[in-house]
Design brief:
The structure is a single chain. The protein has 262 residues and is of the alpha/beta class. Helix content is 25%, strand content 18%. The chain is built from seven helices and eleven strands. Helix 1 packs across helix 5 (127-136). The longest helix is centred in the first third of the chain and has 16 residues, at 10-25. The model is unreliable at 231-259 (pLDDT under 50).
Length: 262
């Protein structure tokens, strides 16, 4: 049975978190507030639950959801080969409006969709979300709306779109908070040789560069370093002409695992 709780009420909040934790354990979806907009959440380690999340939104597996975590030290449990610069950004901006795309731990038994071996991680700056994440562990979360509709800024607005496909709605008031701009998280791809912004958002490029000066902005391409040209050695009489060098293939960035998200 679908239930909405007012999380501004202490008594309801305790019941809400207990019901939401139980729903997540039963592979059902819940709606929760974050510091950007409301999200629809499911157990990140249950393919059944993630499928229900995508079906509720009207999305396919080609748009895998990111994963919210309750604390920074969950990073190494879910991602591998985490660059030192990515850690710097996590330490500076988590909890907050920064999503990091990383190589997913290959040993994990999960299926978020067609991620190409990556996972998008974020720690939200919202007390209700963090309390639930502490109880449940990592959650696959996407914006609480049907595909093509505006992301919900209250649980009531989310329920108008998602209806009974969600077991529990956690109402925490408007998100973003009144008077604050509704800016999504900044997404940084940390799977290549250089960190690069793939979506502008709550954390500006200047703020990122205060901690990692070399991060590339949206659409920026690093200047190619031209190799030094050596003088060719004189060919011995009768020696074959050297073969022309093949041009180096352009490095292709990893496909991000993120979609529209809270």
């Amino acid at each position: 049975m679908t239930t909405t709780y007012d999380c501004s009420n202490d008594d309801q909040r305790a019941d809400a978190l207990e019901h939401a934790q139980r729903a997540i354990g039963e592979k059902k979806c819940v709606v929760l507030p974050t510091d950007t907009v409301y999200g629809i959440a499911a157990d990140a380690f249950s393919p059944q639950a993630v499928t229900m999340l995508l079906v509720s939104k009207g999305r396919s597996r080609t748009m895998p959801p990111p994963v919210l975590i309750p604390r920074i030290n969950a990073l190494d449990g879910l991602a591998t080969d985490v660059p030192a610069d990515a850690r710097k950004l996590a330490e500076a901006f988590w909890p907050g409006g920064l999503t990091l795309i990383l190589h997913a731990q290959p040993s994990l038994d999960w299926d978020l969709g067609e991620t190409k071996g990556t996972v998008a991680l974020r720690m939200p700056a919202d007390d209700v979300a963090l309390e639930l994440l502490t109880l449940t562990g990592p959650l696959a979360v996407s914006s609480a709306n049907r595909t093509g509709q505006a992301p919900a800024q209250t649980a009531a607005a989310a329920r108008e779109q998602l209806a009974d496909s969600v077991e529990v709605y956690l109402e925490g008031g408007p998100r973003p908070l009144e008077g604050e701009a509704g800016v999504p998280s900044t997404i940084v791809d940390a799977t290549g040789p250089r960190l690069r912004v793939v979506r502008n958002g709550a954390v500006s490029l200047d703020e990122l560069r205060e901690h990692v000066p070399g991060v590339l902005g949206l659409g920026e391409v690093p200047m190619a370093e031209e190799p030094a040209v050596e003088e060719p050695a004189a060919a011995e009489p009768g020696a074959a002409e050297p073969a022309a060098a093949e041009p180096a293939a352009a490095a292709q960035p990893s496909a991000p695992a993120a979609e529209q998200q809270p």
